[in-house]
Amino acid sequence: MTNGGNGGPRATEGGLGRTGAGITNVYSLDGLLVFGLLLVCTCAYLRKVPRLRTWLLSERRGIWGVCHKAAVIGTRLHVAVSMSCLLMAFYVLVGK
Fold it and tell me: For the segment 12-45, what is each residue's pLDDT rounded down to a tens digit?
């Protein structure tokens, strides 16, 4: 684990600066956008199912309130949300 003759650790071994292609950055903007779009689309779908609507989306406070608001956004702005999903899918598959 030494770098030549200076005795210091290498930056590529042992995880010290390792940036592999398979590692995903959790706090990236595109990851947050994908998460937000998936949340909105999932909650909008759950709102269309009558039993799940009364069971999951009847509460308007707390985490279920966030899901309720995401469902309202997804149903009112369904054209914009679907276009955003298509653009994000194209970006993730081709652009990245």
Answer: 544 455 555 555 566 788 888 889 999 999 989 8
Number of H helices, E strands in the chain: 4, 0
pTM of the model: 0.64
Within its chain, how far is the Cα of 53 from the centroid?
Answer: 23
For residue 14, the Cα-to-chain-centroid distance in whole angstroms is: 29
The DSSP-derived string for 19-59 is: --TTPPPTT-HHHHHHHHHHHHHHHHHHHHSHHHHHHHSS-
- In whole angstroms, give the CA distance from residue 15 to residue 7: 17
